[in-house]
Amino acid sequence: MAEGEPLALTYIPEVILKKRKHKEESIALTRKNQLELGQHGGKKKKVDDIKRPEQLVREFRDKELDLIRMKQRTKRAKSGLSIPNSKLLFVIRIHGKNDMHPKTRNILYKLRLTRIFHGVFLKATPGVLELLQKVEPYVTYGYPNVKNVRDLIYKKGYGKIDNKRVPLVDNNIIEQALGKHGIVCLEDVVHEVANAGPHFKEIVSFLGSFSLNRPKEGLLGKKALYKDGGDTGNRENQINDLINKMN
């Protein structure tokens, strides 16, 4: 090639040029959407997360009011605690977020109710009933029948092994965790829970809480007691209807 002669341009097919253009436009559009959603930079998200002084004051007052009401419920005569018709309770957390006092949250966590629409099996002891009375506006409970105990364990049950949630798909999992207590299969678990047997504590500790579905109907969003037309407190045998809607 003679010196000074211009280099020939490389030919690029039109199809490739169109693909490049489409890719660049797609990247630009994705970047724009990410910025709008606050996934990068986060300016919009941070502004939304800033709480106004009046909101902070309102939340503080709500939490203090929650503590006062808890103390008032605790002062009720212990004779006011109704004697349960069953040794077994199923408790569902249905309320509670920003308006809870830390003491209320601690009790819910003690009951293993760390999230809304999670449920746990508990023995109906005086100590448990006192705790439920303290967090009454945030939970509902009652006496589950054997059918619902079985359905919850089979459909929603997970076991905790090495701090990991493991689906109960194999009886070997049960035997590995609870075999030393003579419990080697799911039916043994159901029987022990339904009858609040001697190894109830070990089983519910292994099972953890049950993640339930938000019901389309059955909850009114009211913190009044169930017997007064609200959602909370003791539903007795009516808890089975709610379990069916959430399972």
From TrEMBL:
<dbReference type="GO" id="GO:0003735">
    <property type="term" value="F:structural constituent of ribosome"/>
</dbReference>
<dbReference type="Pfam" id="PF08079">
    <property type="entry name" value="Ribosomal_L30_N"/>
</dbReference>
<dbReference type="Pfam" id="PF00327">
    <property type="entry name" value="Ribosomal_L30"/>
</dbReference>
<dbReference type="GO" id="GO:0003723">
    <property type="term" value="F:RNA binding"/>
</dbReference>
<dbReference type="GO" id="GO:0000463">
    <property type="term" value="P:maturation of LSU-rRNA from tricistronic rRNA transcript (SSU-rRNA, 5.8S rRNA, LSU-rRNA)"/>
</dbReference>
<comment type="similarity">
    <text>Belongs to the universal ribosomal protein uL30 family.</text>
</comment>
<keyword id="KW-0689">Ribosomal protein</keyword>
<protein>
    <submittedName>
        <fullName>60S RIBOSOMAL PROTEIN L7</fullName>
    </submittedName>
</protein>
<dbReference type="GO" id="GO:0022625">
    <property type="term" value="C:cytosolic large ribosomal subunit"/>
</dbReference>
<keyword id="KW-0687">Ribonucleoprotein</keyword>
<dbReference type="InterPro" id="IPR016082">
    <property type="entry name" value="Ribosomal_uL30_ferredoxin-like"/>
</dbReference>
<dbReference type="InterPro" id="IPR035808">
    <property type="entry name" value="Ribosomal_uL30_euk_arc"/>
</dbReference>
<dbReference type="InterPro" id="IPR036919">
    <property type="entry name" value="Ribo_uL30_ferredoxin-like_sf"/>
</dbReference>
<feature type="domain" description="Large ribosomal subunit protein uL30 N-terminal eukaryotes">
    <location>
        <begin position="12"/>
        <end position="78"/>
    </location>
</feature>
<dbReference type="InterPro" id="IPR039699">
    <property type="entry name" value="Ribosomal_uL30"/>
</dbReference>
<dbReference type="InterPro" id="IPR005998">
    <property type="entry name" value="Ribosomal_uL30_euk"/>
</dbReference>
<dbReference type="InterPro" id="IPR018038">
    <property type="entry name" value="Ribosomal_uL30_CS"/>
</dbReference>
<dbReference type="InterPro" id="IPR012988">
    <property type="entry name" value="Ribosomal_uL30_N_euk"/>
</dbReference>
<feature type="domain" description="Large ribosomal subunit protein uL30-like ferredoxin-like fold">
    <location>
        <begin position="89"/>
        <end position="139"/>
    </location>
</feature>
